[in-house]
Amino acid sequence: MDLSGVKALRNFKTIHLVRHAQGIHNVGIEKGELESYKLLDACLSPMGIQQVSERRKEIIKSGLLNTVQLVITSPLRRAMQTSVGIFRGQEDMNQFDIFPKVNNSPPIVALEICRERMGLYPCDKRESIGTYRTCFSEIDFTMSDEDALWAEERENMKDVSARGLHFLKWLWERPEKDIAVVSHGIFLQQTLRALHEIVGTPVEDNHLKRFANCELRSIRLDKSDMEAYTLTTYNC
Fold first, then answer.
1. Is 30 a known active-site residue?
2. Are 214 and 3 in contact (CB under 8 A)?
3. 25 flagged as catalytic
4. What cellular component GO annotations does this protein have (predicted)?
5. Which one is catalytic: 16, 25, 91, 116?
6. pTM (two decimals)
7. Longest dimension (CA), the chain
8. Parallel, antiparallel, or unpaired for β 216-222 and 178-183?
9. DSSP of 43-73, one letter per residue?
10. Which of 19, 22, 170, 231 places its Cα 20 to 30 Å from the Cα of 31?
């Protein structure tokens, strides 16, 4: 019996990358309000809620909801609203009837390392885990702590890239083979660029561009690429 195909399946993972839906800070940028504390830990805009609803319908139709084994989300409010809305069928516990729910939903885990580029802008600073546990009861926060990563100075792009590669290494070491990640525009773009430019993994040109709000892109992580690259420059 030819088992080469079975062996090949064990040597790669499929990662589905989703940028959060439109947040009120995205609207605030157009008004020059990005540094306003009114945008602290920005939530989704009405347009963003609509984008989540449309994306959920698409992944149900495609069958993706049945193949994803784990969802990793940034612990910023707009990302968690997007992840819960798409993969659990609700925006948050107070608005459970916005999106229809299904029972075979994958677990959702919040992870600090995949949050947006940190520093300077209030929209990228999050609220306490205690507040989140109340608002997002379906998310697992056991891997998150208080906001120790936040600093007032804007994070260097090289550090964002290093953080992204460390995150991919962490994903590779997970047992799941089909994982969804809900994160942010800068973080996702820098992660894919680093995967292509530093690790040497082939990545399509259109995947290296900035994500649109609620856009989904799927990539393949191969064993040969991830084991060939040892991450030693970022201590998470």
1. no
2. no
3. no
4. cytoplasm
5. 116
6. 0.84
7. 64
8. unpaired
9. -B-HHHHHHHHHHHHHHHHHTHHHH--EEEE
10. 19
